[in-house]
Predict the 3D structure of the following.
Amino acid sequence: MNLICAHLDQIREVTPSAQGCEECLQTGDTWAHLRLCRSCGHVGCCDSSKNKHATKHFNATGHPIIKSFEPGENWSYCYIDQVDWEDLPARGGAGGRVQTLPPKGQ
Ligand SMILES: [Zn+2]
Ligand SMILES: [Zn+2]
Ligand SMILES: [Zn+2]
């Protein structure tokens, strides 16, 4: 599978800014699911949440790629290309960078 996202170079090693949606925590609001910005580590709530802070963060900053911040979920999504993909598990501390080349000869 080749990715059609042209923004993978914007993925950084980020530290999550909070364990919940930053904005919702400040206002005492609730959320459905959490998304982690892969450019700066901002944690925001998903589009199923009433405040949609992850999307608002993209609109405000232009950071295109988010990752699910839910336990056991390992997918990312690009707002610009509107594609999502599953990240391969990190190998040997490689940091979980997306590998797009399929294994050959197996
Ligand atoms: Zn993209
Ligand atoms: Zn929120
Ligand atoms: Zn960001």
